[in-house]
Design a protein that fits this description.
Porin, mainly beta, eight-stranded antiparallel barrel
Amino acid sequence: MEGNKIRQYLIICFLILPTFGFAQDKNMSIGIFGSLNSYNYHLEDIRDGLTGRSYEKIMNGNVGISIKLMLSERIGLRSALAYSLKGYKLKSQHISSDPYVHWLNAEVNNEDKSVNVKMEYLEIPIQGLYYFTPNKNIKIYGALGFAVNARLNNIYSDTDAGNRLEKNAPDFVYLVSLGGGVEFHISNQAYLSVEPNFSQYLNKIDKNNMGGNAQSYGVSAGLNFAI
């Protein structure tokens, strides 16, 4: 119940930003975006001496809506409301007898003896923007921000072992991000953007099985319209 209330507060905070922009008569835009991300989870085996198990990175992504508020010619504030998919592939030589597989809410592929672990989040970032070329049709900027990820699903199954592991997966994951990109202004009312970015997580997605806080590298693209 407490987690649901916090998710509602996060969405309300996202919706407050355009209200502030209208009240201050600021230059605002709203848009859609998507990103592809590669994660380093620092995943560790959950039992000592276990052989025949490995994990592989898979490309994950975000999709959502964003709002940008320009405070001056060079400084802006951006927020977003995004669906974020994180996960990895676990491979085992004996996947049918591997108890770890049965603890996960995952899709099993018996042909290559692998399992895809999917973790779904609602991500709400807030970022400061600085424009190096503010008065050009092609604008170059840097971005620095913070984001909250609220977990939407149960990572593990409802078995007894799964319930124990579920407690290791926090409802909220926090990160700081650093990026920079280019905006291509195709008119006074619309622009395209491309932005490479790096994120450092501040807590573990799985407190037991991951040896450290995750990092991610990604590229996002968006289409925005002035409002």
